[in-house]
Write a structure and sequence with these properties.
The chain is mainly beta. The chain folds into two domains: 259 residues, Sulfite Oxidase, Chain A, domain 2 (Alpha-Beta Complex), CATH 3.90.420; 111 residues, Immunoglobulin-like, CATH 2.60.40. It is 7% helix and 34% strand. The strands form eight sheets. It has a five-stranded mixed β-sheet. Strands 11, 12, 15, 16 and 17 form a five-stranded antiparallel β-sheet that branches. 43% of the residues are buried. The N terminus is likely disordered. The protein binds the ligand Nc1nc2c(c(=O)[nH]1)N[C@H]1C(S)=C(S)[C@@H](COP(=O)(O)O)O[C@H]1N2 and molybdenum atom. The site of molybdenum atom (MO) has 6 residues, from loops.
Length: 410
């Protein structure tokens, strides 16, 4: 069990109440009866589902230690905001705390600052202006399961992503309270989770100072109007709108202002992609350099139909789904029924914010009996378009192909 498994009586104070997780290992090891089909070419295609994790609804179990829980795809059809209890879960180390004492918790701001801080949650909530933003959190390895050839790492289907409305304070205001000194170039973030082995690297990520101070990067103490689930980073999570979830440090308690880039393995060795078009390379290729993963890329999905669904021939069929633009808004979502030769526009629903999911809808009519493929393509407001070909790189990162959904008309 994790190092911090001692459970004390949760206290209630202000907006946040202490949260505790108990018996997770025990719960997770129960037999999984229900399964889900992730439509993996060549299989194995099914994964267990579980509803036994604290504060979590029915989730796909990718791994139990650390917990890697994926959102079942049908959840994305229910609205633009992913319910907190269905938000995916990913940790690097299994030793994250299962209890946080909110009366004792402090957020440290240190390094190149005039006034080092140890902010309590009460001070943070009381003293700093409130800020809200909708944003998609997506693991850099989302959709890795569909890489061909397959690659190592968490075998996520398309459900290691989630959209939420975050409430908290701007990172800029926190940094201003500490007073950033001249010469500061980067800000590094760490959480309460520590590796089990002393020589294993603690999980940290950093942003450059201008990004950290852009007024959108924030510290969230609530998502979708409720406190963060423990597994999603209670009591504070760094939100980096438009950027990969790897930067969204959970259980954030340490902010270090530095005069140099981060030198941790999480930046220098892992979470890197080929510096090539769409970050794609051929399997076995070696003549390329690597750059850190940063922004999200545009994506779009059908949510009301699944592979192999049968629809009546010649009858107009409503098709709807979600899209996001990555680090820009959604400009258009188009459908193709002829393998990408021609595209038809869809209607975009309400804009809930640049970095969030956008729902879209359309109608298709399949005139001939038999197999059909519906392709979805998002273009963001920077005119960046999803590639037709699935990105392949050894890390299985930043996959954002035009999705092809196979249907049957009968
Ligand atoms: N403290 C901490 N924050 C973290 C991580 C972690 O291991 N520890 N993993 C990162 C990665 S790679 C992902 S995909 C997201 C997952 O966030 P979630 O579990 O809330 O969905 O958290 C990010 N923040
Ligand atoms: Mo991730």
């Amino acid at each position: 069990m994790p190092k911090h498994s001692t459970l004390s009586t949760p206290s209630r104070r202000g907006l946040l109440s202490a949260a505790a997780l108990g018996g997770m290992g025990l719960l997770a090891s129960r037999a999984h009866a229900e399964t889900v089909d992730l439509h993996v070419p060549g299989g194995p295609s099914t994964r267990p589902l579980t509803a036994t994790y604290p504060e979590k609804g029915r989730m796909i179990v990718q791994r139990t230690r650390p917990p890697w829980l994926e959102t079942p795809f049908e959840v994305f059809d229910t609205g633009v905001f992913t319910p907190n209890d269905r938000h995916f879960v990913s940790w690097h180390w299994a030793t994250f705390p299962t209890h946080v004492d909110t009366d004792r918790f402090t957020l440290k701001v240190r390094g190149l600052v005039e006034r080092p801080q140890a902010l309590s949650l009460q001070e943070l909530i009381r003293d700093l202006p409130r800020f809200e933003i909708a944003a998609v959190s997506q693991c850099a390895g989302n959709s890795r399961l569909y890489a061909q050839p397959r690659v190592a790492g968490a075998q996520w289907a398309n459900g290691s992503m989630s959209n939420a409305l975050y409430t908290g304070v701007r990172l800029r205001d926190v940094l201003d309270r500490a007073g950033v000194k001249g010469g500061a170039t980067h800000v590094r973030f760490g959480g309460l989770d520590e590796p089990l082995l002393p020589d294993a690297p603690k999980f940290v990520k950093a942003l450059d100072i201008d990004h950290a101070r852009d007024g959108e990067v924030m510290l969230a103490f609530a998502m979708n109007g409720a406190q963060l689930p423990m597994l999603n980073g209670f009591p504070l999570k760094l939100i980096v709108p438009g950027w990969s979830a790897v930067y969204w440090i959970k259980m954030l308690d340490d902010i270090a202002v530095m005069d140099h880039p981060d030198t941790s393995v999480w930046t220098t060795r892992s979470y890197r992609v080929p510096d090539t078009l769409n970050h794609t390379v051929e399997p076995g290729q070696t003549d390329y350099s690597l750059i850190p993963i940063t922004r999200n890329l545009p994506r779009s999905f059908v949510t009301n139909l699944k592979p192999s669904d049968t629809i009546p021939v010649g009858v107009p069929q409503p098709v709807r789904g979600i899209a996001f633009g990555g680090d820009r808004g959604v400009a258009a979502v188009d459908l193709s029924l002829d393998g990408g030769r021609t595209w038809q526009p869809t209607i975009l629903d309400k804009d809930e914010g640049t970095y969030g999911f956008r729902q879209w809808q359309s109608t298709i009519s399949l005139a001939a009996r038999g197999a059909h493929t519906v392709m979805t393509r998002c273009t963001n407001t920077d005119r960046l378009v999803q590639p037709i070909r699935r990105v392949w790189n050894p890390g299985g990162y930043m996959s954002n192909p035009v999705e092809a959904l196979d249907l049957v008309a009968a």
